[in-house]
């Protein structure tokens, strides 16, 4: 049998240095935001009182959650569908192997980066200003968010497809669009559906947060109840949201697993 | 499936292809192929067999020189003119290149893409005539009964027949077959080669086949073209090609790797 070479010694200076660096960074950052453990312990009484006031959840409030909750789902669905459709050309033009040319590829990549860099809350506030507070603003914000999510993931998976089939379509005299439709998309379809479902999961969660800035849905109710110090209702909303999100994620995940 | 017998001529004039990495794929090639010929191209791997085939339909671009198909130069940039040429040139690949999740029929209809208005293909609204052409193409390779089966459920030989049917659906003047049997077993290999020869005889479609098995080249070729480092080193009848010619094409003695049936080596 061949001799196994001796195991190389661990690079202790590197490890020590890394740990020291992380500790220093954490301490410096905590100091920067005035984080102090003693103060946290002294103020824990306020947190305890809040928790006591938040329990038990106000189940009588549950029926009044149905409408805003459905609104949240509608926002998520519209956002996913609109964003999902718009993300198709964005993703294809951002895939290096399919794009129409370096300039279009570069422009599209940067467009995607801008969409992704700006947070969904920013888009919600932007659209709330543009079309008024309410579910439409939320759906628009989530459309943008969905384009950002799907196009990023899908363009990368499109880049790894087998280019044999697209070439075969080209060899038959097919146009660029036909090359994409018949050669590339059939290979990327499963991934696309999977990413769209994933975006829908994110959108259900995000549409609750968006409600906080006035983009409709259950988040808006959460914000009004919190402002009125109705903490037992707040707990009820959070519980309901938790259950709903878990259910939706389970369904979506099981579909995605089956697709994979 | 009408095919005008005067069509399908190919002429290379001083054609060169140098790849970006400096590899010479085609070196000063002068070659004339007449309509309806069945030409087998041989050479060791990297000799430029695929390069030659792919230059005919513009998948590989020339560095200099010219290729003409029926007297018209093969366009060297993407666009309508190149698509019009490709419409008349079918291609068959070693790895079949089918959309596995689609039916055999859908795959064969891809050969009709350039023949129908774009919106019809896009929404899968194929004219009756084109479906007819696709069906006839399947008939010609004898797998009509598989029309509505998913391509992924076929055997390798059947998949290659779908590949051939897709090329036939183009009603082409030329068929380019790039190592069509390299991923098939010996029995299927002979069936596919016989199919190609039969189609060439029946329809008069000019056929160029890349092969790396010498015995197949000798058995099925009408004319054999030998390439070595992108250069034409042999051009002659398959009936008279000698073992010495093959040695010269390969630049070495050939081994059992170069033949399908090992018995032909003494």
Q: Could you walk me through the main structural features you see in this protein, from its secondary elements to its overall organization?
A:
With 260 residues, chain A is mainly α. Chain A has a single domain (69-259), classed as MetI-like (MetI-like fold), CATH 1.10.3720. Chain A is 78% helix and 0% strand. Chain A has 11 helices and no strands. Chain A has helices at 12-32, 37-42, 44-53, 66-94, 102-117, 120-131, 135-158, 164-171, 176-212, 218-227, 231-259. Chain A is globular. Chain A starts with 11 loop residues before the first helix and ends with a helix. In chain B, strand 1 (10-18) and strand 2 (24-33) form a beta hairpin. Chain B is α/β, with parallel strands linked by helices. Chain B has a 6-stranded mixed beta sheet, with helices on both faces. Chain B is built from 9 helices and 10 strands. The N and C termini of chain B lie far apart (44 Å). The relative contact order of chain B is 0.19. The longest helix of chain B has 18 residues, at 186-203. Chain B has helices at 49-56, 80-87, 104-109, 118-122, 128-140, 156-169, 186-203, 214-220, 243-250; strands spanning 10-18, 24-33, 38-42, 64-69, 72-73, 89-93, 174-178, 206-210, 223-228, 231-237. In chain B, helix 5 crosses helix 6 (156-169).
Largest sheet of chain A: none
Q: What is the typical, i.e. mean, pLDDT of chain B? A: 91
Name the structural class of chain A. mainly alpha
Number of E strands of chain B = 10
Second rung of CATH, namely the architecture of chain A: Orthogonal Bundle
CATH class of the largest domain in chain B: Alpha Beta
Task: Count structural domains of chain A.
Answer: 1
Features:
heterodimer; A: 260 residues; mainly alpha; MetI-like fold; 78% helix; 0% strand; globular; B: 266 residues; alpha/beta; Rossmann fold; 2 domains; six-stranded mixed sheet; four-stranded antiparallel sheet; 33% helix; disordered N terminus
């Amino acid at each position: 049998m061949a001799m196994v070479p001796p195991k190389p010694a661990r690079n202790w200076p590197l490890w020590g240095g890394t740990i020291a660096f992380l500790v220093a960074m954490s301490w410096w950052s905590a100091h920067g935001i005035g984080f102090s453990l003693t103060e946290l312990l002294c103020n824990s009484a306020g947190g305890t009182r809040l928790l006591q006031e938040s329990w038990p959840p106000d189940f009588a409030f549950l029926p009044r959650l149905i409408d805003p909750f459905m609104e949240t789902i509608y926002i998520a669905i519209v956002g996913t569908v609109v964003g999902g459709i718009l993300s198709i050309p964005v993703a294809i033009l951002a895939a290096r192997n399919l794009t129409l040319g370096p300039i279009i590829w570069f422009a599209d990549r940067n467009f995607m980066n801008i969409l992704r860099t700006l947070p969904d809350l920013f888009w919600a506030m932007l659209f709330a200003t543009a079309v008024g507070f309410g579910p439409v603003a939320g759906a628009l914000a989530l459309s943008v968010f969905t384009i950002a999510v799907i196009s990023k993931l899908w363009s990368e998976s499109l880049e790894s497809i087998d280019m044999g089939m697209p070439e075969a379509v080209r060899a038959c005299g097919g146009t660029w669009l036909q090359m994409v439709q018949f050669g590339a998309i059939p290979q990327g379809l499963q991934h696309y559906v999977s990413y769209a479902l994933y975006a829908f999961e994110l959108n259900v969660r995000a549409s609750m947060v968006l409600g906080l800035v006035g983009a409709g849905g259950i988040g808006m109710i959460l914000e009004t109840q919190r402002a009125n110090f109705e903490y037992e209702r707040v707990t009820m909303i959070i519980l309901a949201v938790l259950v709903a999100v878990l259910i939706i994620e389970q369904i979506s995940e099981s579909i995605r697993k089956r697709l994979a | 499936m009408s095919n005008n017998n005067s069509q399908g001529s190919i002429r290379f004039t001083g054609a060169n292809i140098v790849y970006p990495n400096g590899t010479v794929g085609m070196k000063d090639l002068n070659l004339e192929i007449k309509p309806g010929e069945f030409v087998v191209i041989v050479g060791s791997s990297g000799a430029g067999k695929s390069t030659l085939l792919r230059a005919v339909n513009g998948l590989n671009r020339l560095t200099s020189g010219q290729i003409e198909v029926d007297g018209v130069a093969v366009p060297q940039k993407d666009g309508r003119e190149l698509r019009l040429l490709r419409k008349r040139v079918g291609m068959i690949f070693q790895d079949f290149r089918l959309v596995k999740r689609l039916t055999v029929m859908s795959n064969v209809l891809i050969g009709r893409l350039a023949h129908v208005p774009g919106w019809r293909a896009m929404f899968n609204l194929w004219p009756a005539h084109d479906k007819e052409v696709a069906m006839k193409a399947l008939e010609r390779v004898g797998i009509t009964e598989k029309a509505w089966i998913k391509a992924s459920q076929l055997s390798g030989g059947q998949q290659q027949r779908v590949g051939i049917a897709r090329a036939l659906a183009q009603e082409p003047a030329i068929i380019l077959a790039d190592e069509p049997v390299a991923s098939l077993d010996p029995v299927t290999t002979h069936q596919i080669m016989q199919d190609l020869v039969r189609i060439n005889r029946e329809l008069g479609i000019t056929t160029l086949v890349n092969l790396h098995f010498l015995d197949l080249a000798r058995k099925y070729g009408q004319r054999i073209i030998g390439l070595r480092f992108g250069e034409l080193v042999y051009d002659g009848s398959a009936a008279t090609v000698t073992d010495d010619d093959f040695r010269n094409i390969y630049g070495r003695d050939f081994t059992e790797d170069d033949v399908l049936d090992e018995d032909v080596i003494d």
